[in-house]
């Protein structure tokens, strides 16, 4: 193995690349271990950008001025965090407000801001020794004006992988020293470095919070042909060269800390029902950073009137990407300083986006009046009046619901006072959810010729109608975000594969930016739900073969199979028993007893019937009393609408109801008392959600592990979106279950294949695999039939008997394991 393949040369190479781009090369001797600052750069920045304040500080404190400055900065960092101090500065007695960095100016004509921006000092310190009494050293420390913002541990695939760097962070880079109990400011969440990179020559991982074994690293890779990782470079450069070529140039690096990083706050509940606030410092993943920069650069160059399709899988962090895009769009300026877009309109049916969007943007830019949310319970004015005032008043970011969006388009298209204004419309899942009756008013106003009722249109369909009517506004750019674009989505928002030629059958539109589902799965951001997919027919055939071939014995198996065979499509009672037994035996214990399930029903009436059947079953089976259910559907139904002609055949009074009885979410979830079901379902006692055309899209519940489908799903997009409710990750969640009573597995697979290059449904009907495994185990010679019989007897006796039952196999196996460890150590 040559020296060129060792870590030190790679580390030196990275440093050389950074220095070539204008980074200052530092030495660990210049680092103050107590303050976790690089004093030389902090003082130089202040002298260069705020000389009068530095002079005042020296006049008041003499030679102690640097220490007074660092002491006050340290307190600000501990209280506000690195990101907020970088953006907003801090105050010091006698000198007033001190800025510690400068963002790129929106208006290039502002010479003072340009000077301060050019004065930013980026420094890399190799082998940064950060502990006052121990020789701990991090490979690279990264600073902005003396404040640490990043660290890097470097490995090479010829010696150790990035996994070794991750392990090093977990075991050796601790925020609190285990021996001295000293808090290490450099490694402390929010107060110290913002991001920590574990880098090899082929991949990069990152974390924003070091917490020992609980540290969670995310991939920071470009992706490779739709999969995880990074592509090989044809020019011979390292696959991770994008780190110093694209991420670390001074403009790009400063922009990340001034325009991207923020702290996400989420309310979480424990098993006792106590709510706490969880904070996560968000650093953009590569595809997020790349997508935002690509769209902003294109918008800056081409101005309004463009279309952008961001095809990002579930698990892509879409909410953050939308927030960053919205904020950057309102900051775009022409050479004369005028804004390219007067307002950015965000269209969504996810109420959660309002709060997250506002929190993220206000951390990035604390300007007052930056965001207005329309159609919320915050004003006595009508939503159309609120919207008109926001548009005419030039509110930078306006959030509207899908139902309110037609008002916005009507105003943009017809209000003469807005004709000289430009708008960016960001659409979250344009092909889902209907616009409602407001679209009909727009249809009449614009004389649109759609034959379909416009109140049933999606945003995508509405925009297509506007485009076809030749009134598509040239002062509006559209930014569509979706994980599952349909053909119509591509035609409306996509761009020709060859932009130099018009769209045609040979030059079909494609997405402007893409983050594939398979990459998200391989990177661990979502789970592959098809791995746990099993159609009911497969489960039935599996059981039938076991009985027919006498591979199982006993009357119990035959009784269970007979019960399955008699399941009638409308016989909800028996399906509920099947679901409950499956859930309790296979799902309920997962995630430390927090796992949840969703039952997808075919209609609102079916949802009501399921809810009544679940309640009745739980009532008559005390062992299930701890499992509470919720039902979700829109509007209300009468008892007559709920009844089914098969009900007369059922025994018991499960479905005997007054025909005039009224059923709604409120009446069927009495304990909820009108609260948001999304929030209530997160509580530990609620384990099963029954839905009818609700929560099948845009619903994120990471503890959802199982889904039981009793609905013929209409199309590919709906299939993928429905099953994808299960794909969110959660600590300890490594599997999902889908039992499909209705749909054809080939149809399901075909739907996923449109968006996931690695989609597959495992064939679970071949039972011979069990015997193949048994044969391999027999051939290993670790046990005998006598050993197994002795173990079967011992396992129900004392612990001593149990140990004795395993001893013969252990005696054979242990030397083999020892031999394997020796081989592993040597090679």
From TrEMBL:
GO biological processes: DNA restriction-modification system
SMART domains per record: DEXDc
Domain Helicase ATP-binding: 280-513
GO MF annotations in UniProt: ATP binding; DNA binding; type I site-specific deoxyribonuclease activity
Domain of life the protein comes from: Bacteria
PANTHER family according to UniProt: HELICASE SUPERFAMILY 1 AND 2 DOMAIN-CONTAINING PROTEIN (PTHR42927)
Protein name (Swiss-Prot/TrEMBL): Type I restriction enzyme, R subunit
């Amino acid at each position: 193995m040559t020296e060129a393949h060792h870590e030190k040369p790679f580390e030196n190479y990275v440093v050389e690349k950074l220095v070539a781009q204008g980074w200052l090369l530092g030495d660990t001797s210049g680092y103050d271990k107590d303050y976790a600052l690089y004093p030389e750069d902090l003082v130089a920045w202040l002298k260069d950008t705020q000389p009068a304040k530095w002079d005042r500080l020296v006049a008041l404190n003499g030679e102690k001025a640097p220490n007074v400055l660092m002491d006050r900065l340290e307190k600000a960092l501990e209280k506000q965090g690195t990101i907020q101090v970088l953006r907003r500065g801090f105050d010091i007695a006698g000198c007033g407000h001190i800025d510690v960095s400068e963002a790129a100016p929106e208006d290039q004509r502002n010479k003072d801001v340009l000077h301060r921006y050019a004065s930013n000092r980026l420094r890399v310190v190799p082998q940064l020794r950060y502990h006052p009494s121990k020789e701990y050293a991090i490979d690279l420390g990264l600073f902005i004006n003396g404040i640490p913002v990043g660290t890097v541990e470097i490995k090479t695939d010829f010696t150790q992988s990035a996994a070794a760097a991750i392990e090093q962070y977990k075991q050796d880079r601790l925020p609190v020293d285990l021996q001295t109990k000293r808090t290490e400011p450099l490694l402390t969440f929010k107060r110290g470095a913002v991001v920590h990179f574990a880098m090899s020559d082929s991949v990069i991982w990152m974390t924003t919070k070091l917490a020992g074994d609980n540290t969670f690293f995310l991939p920071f890779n470009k992706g490779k042909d739709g999969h995880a990782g990074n592509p090989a470079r044809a020019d011979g450069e390292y696959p991770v060269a994008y780190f110093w070529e694209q991420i670390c140039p001074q403009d790009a690096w400063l922009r990340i800390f001034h325009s991207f990083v923020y702290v996400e706050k989420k309310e979480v509940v424990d098993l006792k029902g106590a709510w706490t606030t969880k904070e996560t410092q968000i650093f953009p993943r590569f595809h997020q950073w790349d997508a935002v920069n690509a769209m902003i650069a294109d918008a800056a160059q081409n101005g309004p009137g463009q279309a952008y399709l961001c095809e990002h899988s579930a698990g892509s962090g879409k909410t953050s990407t939308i927030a960053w895009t919205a904020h950057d769009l309102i900051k775009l300026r022409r050479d004369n300083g005028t804004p390219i877009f007067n307002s950015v309109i965000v269209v969504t049916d996810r109420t959660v986006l309002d709060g997250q969007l506002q929190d993220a943007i206000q951390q990035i830019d604390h300007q007052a009046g930056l965001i207005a949310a329309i159609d919320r319970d915050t004003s006595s004015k009508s939503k159309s009046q609120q919207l008109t005032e926001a548009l005419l008043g030039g509110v930078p970011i306006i959030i509207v619901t899908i139902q309110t969006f037609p008002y916005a388009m009507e105003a943009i298209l017809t209000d003469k006072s807005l004709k000289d204004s430009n708008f960016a419309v960001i659409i979250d899942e344009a092909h889902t959810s209907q616009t409602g009756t407001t679209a009909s008013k727009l249809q009449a106003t614009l004389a649109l010729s759609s034959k379909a009722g416009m109140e049933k249109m999606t945003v995508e369909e509405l925009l297509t109608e506007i485009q076809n009517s030749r009134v598509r506004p040239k002062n509006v750019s559209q930014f569509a975000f979706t994980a599952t674009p349909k053909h119509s989505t591509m035609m409306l928002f996509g761009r020709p594969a060859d932009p130099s030629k018009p769209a045609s059958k040979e030059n079909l539109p494609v997405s402007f930016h893409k983050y594939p589902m398979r990459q998200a799965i391989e990177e661990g951001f979502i789970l592959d739900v098809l791995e746990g997919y099993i159609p009911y027919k497969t489960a039935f055939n599996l059981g039938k073969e076991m009985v027919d071939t006498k591979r199982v014995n006993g009357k119990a198996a035959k009784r269970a199979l007979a019960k399955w065979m008699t399941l009638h499509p409308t016989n909800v009672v028996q399906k509920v028993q099947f679901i409950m037994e499956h859930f309790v035996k296979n799902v309920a214990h997962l995630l430390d007893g927090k796992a949840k399930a969703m039952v997808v029903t075919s209609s609102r009436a079916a949802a009501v019937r399921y809810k009544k059947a679940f309640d009745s079953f739980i009532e008559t089976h005390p062992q299930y009393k701890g499992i509470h259910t919720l039902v979700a559907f829109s509007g209300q139904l009468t008892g007559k609408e709920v009844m089914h002609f098969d009900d007369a055949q059922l025994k018991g009074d499960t479905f005997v109801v007054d025909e005039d009885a009224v059923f709604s979410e409120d009446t069927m979830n009495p304990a909820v008392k009108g609260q948001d079901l999304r929030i209530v379902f997160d509580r530990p006692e609620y384990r099963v959600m029954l839905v009818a055309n609700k929560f099948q899209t845009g619903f994120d519940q990471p503890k959802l592990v199982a889904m039981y489908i009793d609905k013929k799903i209409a199309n590919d997009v709906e299939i993928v979106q429905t099953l994808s409710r299960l794909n969110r990750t959660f600590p300890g969640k490594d599997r999902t279950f889908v039992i499909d009573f209705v749909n054809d597995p080939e149809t399901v697979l075909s739907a996923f294949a449109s968006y996931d290059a690695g989609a597959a449904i495992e064939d679970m009907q071949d039972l011979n695999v069990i015997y193949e495994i048994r044969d391999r185990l027999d051939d290993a010679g670790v046990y005998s039939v006598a050993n197994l019989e002795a173990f079967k007897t011992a396992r129900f006796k004392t612990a001593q008997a149990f140990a004795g039952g395993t001893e013969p196999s252990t005696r054979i196996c242990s030397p083999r394991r020892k031999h394997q460890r020796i081989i592993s150590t040597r090679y």
